[in-house]
Amino acid sequence: MKGGGLRAYAILYLLFLYAPILLLPIFAFNSGTIVAFPLKGITTQWFGQMWENATLRRALLNSLVIALSSAALATCLGLFAARASTRFAFSGKGPVMGLIMLPLVLPEIIVGVSLLVVLLGVGVPLSILTVILGHTLVCMPYAVAILTTAFSSLDRSLEEAAQDLGETKWNAFRLVILPLVMPGIISAMLMSFTISLDEFIIAFFLAGNEPTLPTYIFSQLRFPKSIPMIMALGTVLVAMSIVLLTVAEYFRRRGVARTGQKDSGGFL
């Protein structure tokens, strides 16, 4: 009885969580402009309308630039932080790492408003660059978490052996450590890219007049005729997110297998 109740709860939870996402492609291919059953017919015109929209293409380009830049910055900074936290002992390490991971628990609206006040206070104009800075701050804790796991699973004697054979510290890191944690680096970049691409609140506060995909979608919800096109766009974004997370999970598991670490679960 207890097992049946838990199973029913799990099914209802998954339906509540994923049913709206499953409805996206259904209404994206619906020929009617009203999001309701029964469906009018099957069409792909909303996808064509989506690609013909100049503002949407601009928002897509902005989001790709922001996501790629934020992912690269967050992964590089996360690489340094994870390396320092797992390899070296220094005073204040706990508080420093706690501050780095703080955006994980802070409400994004607080982060967005705080960044807006600070940037305007120092005279920095709102642009794509300010969104990149905000997204880097948000994505970095995820990159640090992934890379810390990758570094902590390594055998320190490998690096020491390379130095005993005559390699410098930099060459030992570049030739021995970096290839072993490369799956974690790729996984951190893909995760950061996905988070940045889907992030709305910070982009809403910091983008200024530059549209991003989430802010463009929000602006179009006021117009009922645009809803089917937004459904088509949402379908593409969900498919892209699933692919990126699948690739990130593949590289995470590859890194676990390469280092011999026990797999404690991942994104999927």
From TrEMBL:
Span of domain ABC transmembrane type-1: 60-248
Subcellular location, record wording: Cell membrane
Pfam family for this entry, one: BPD_transp_1
Keywords: Cell membrane, Membrane, Transmembrane, Transmembrane helix, Transport
One Gene Ontology cellular component annotation held by this UniProt entry: plasma membrane
InterPro entries: Bact_Polyamine_Transport (IPR051789), MetI-like (IPR000515), MetI-like_sf (IPR035906)
Record membrane topology: Multi-pass membrane protein
Matches recorded under CDD domains: TM_PBP2 (cd06261)
PROSITE patterns in alphabetical order: ABC_TM1
Family: Belongs to the binding-protein-dependent transport system permease family. CysTW subfamily.
Protein name as it appears in the record: Spermidine/putrescine ABC transporter
Organism from which the protein derives: Paracoccus contaminans
